[in-house]
Amino acid sequence: MAQNPPDLRPDLARARVTDAPRHGQPTIGMVSLGCPKALVDSERILTRLRAEGYGISPDYSGADAVIVNTCGFLDSAKAESLDAIGEALAENGRVIVTGCLGAEPDYITGAHPKVLAVTGPHQYEQVLDAVHGAVPPAPDPFIDLLPATGVSLTPRHYSYLKISEGCNHKCKFCIIPDMRGRLASRPHRAVMREAEKLVEAGVKELLVISQDTSAYGTDWKDREAKAPILDLARDLGTLGAWVRLHYVYPYPHVRDLIPLMETGGVLPYLDIPFQHAHPDTLRRMARPAAAARTLDEIAAWRAACPSITLRSTFIVGYPGETEAEFQTLLDWLDEAQLDRVGCFQYENVDGARSNALPDHVPAEVKQDRWDRFMAKSQAISEAKLAAKVGTRIEVIVDSIEEDAATCRTKGDAPEIDGNLFIDERFDTLSPGDIVTVTVDEASEYDLWGQIEKPRT
């Protein structure tokens, strides 16, 4: 369990701790796999443990036990989680498993019978009980102090802000509702209180996450607003930090978020998982099958906020996908001209309804379609970034290396989008600085720029 690298990935998170443990203090290690939502769960667990007097170890050898927060979304993710559990057992021997894969305890104990305990996703109390049983707490009230912002697994200048759990959709390829339950939104005041504390502690960018961000608050039976995400986004936009919205399902009320982006309260960035474009494929996915209307919405968003960056993810090789359906996706991508695009080859997931669909696509065909999709999206990205050469833009500094400062524009989320590099006159910069640069070079996914006047 190595120290966090400067370019920390959420799916490889290790606790970054600088405080040396006091004599006799019990210590816990954490391996956090999967999505940023799981990363927030890991941070909450570690924060609770710190409050009880536990130290957080950045390596296996210094930990009295290790928690592995797993991912169970795809079969490949399950395999990675089992590998991580095996590594922790080999390196430490005392392992507690939690997270999405924890919803299948027999699957875990069948592969690793020596784990100490298995709990499901966001079951914080059960994790703490398991830690107490394996490593009894020994707090010192005069020494053990909890930082005001808790324990963070991300760099200090940005933080994930989870606003809800679960999902009410029934996409055939997804088992998230089975693992994490139906939509359960956090109270508005609780989200704002957490966001305010983060900004007060120096966080410059809030990454709003959930399984279905635009559905936030629609599970409240006594709500006054039809779409509570609008009020939450508006309030978050008053805190003075960058506010980035992830996993925004394209409901009609999303159009009402766009004016907030144009006025600067919320970053002009939408992360919307379209998944496909052919109506028949979308129906087999149990997704809304209105790709043409989606193009109209995209045009309206861009008209209202010309600087908006649109990111999405897609699945190729879904069961029954024909060459004609795939070509429709490519043609749609040509029209949509999305700025940031991710693509996955379909995988069966244990428990997903899509497994039973007929006409599964051969692996070689899925690979060919993925290659063609990525070539198309890369060409679009290259052209869009080339058009930015000569423009002035604001960027946030993520890290400083010997040869350059690695930064992101307002259109780039950490770890999943591109970077902007400053390779001259960057010696006075620090992570979290927001500076204006002139773009002087572009590649398929990244930019290079020259620094202007810094603003901290």
From TrEMBL:
Binding positions for [4Fe-4S] cluster 2 per the UniProt entry: C167, C171, C174
EC number: 2.8.4.4
Co-factor remark: Binds 2 [4Fe-4S] clusters. One cluster is coordinated with 3 cysteines and an exchangeable S-adenosyl-L-methionine.
Residues binding [4Fe-4S] cluster 1, per UniProt: C35, C71, C100
Radical SAM core domain mapped to chain residues: 153-383
A GO cellular-component term linked to this record: ribosome
Record key words, sorted: 4Fe-4S, Cytoplasm, Iron, Iron-sulfur, Metal-binding, Ribonucleoprotein, Ribosomal protein, S-adenosyl-L-methionine, Transferase
Transmembrane stretches, start-end: none
Subcellular location(s) per record: Cytoplasm
Xref: Gene3D superfamilies: Methylthiotransferase, N-terminal domain, Nucleic acid-binding proteins, tm_1862 like domain
Cofactor(s) named in the record: [4Fe-4S] cluster
Enzyme class: transferase
Keyword check for Isomerase: no
A GO biological process held by the record: tRNA modification
Catalytic activity: L-aspartate(89)-[ribosomal protein uS12]-hydrogen + (sulfur carrier)-SH + AH2 + 2 S-adenosyl-L-methionine = 3-methylsulfanyl-L-aspartate(89)-[ribosomal protein uS12]-hydrogen + (sulfur carrier)-H + 5'-deoxyadenosine + L-methionine + A + S-adenosyl-L-homocysteine + 2 H(+)
All residue ranges annotated as the MTTase N-terminal domain in the record: 26-136
Segment forming the signal sequence: none
SUPFAM superfamilies associated with the record: Radical SAM enzymes
Entry similarity comment: Belongs to the methylthiotransferase family. RimO subfamily.
Stored HAMAP family: MTTase_RimO
Functional summary from the UniProt entry: Catalyzes the methylthiolation of an aspartic acid residue of ribosomal protein uS12.
Protein name in the entry: Ribosomal protein uS12 methylthiotransferase RimO
Organism: Pseudaestuariivita atlantica
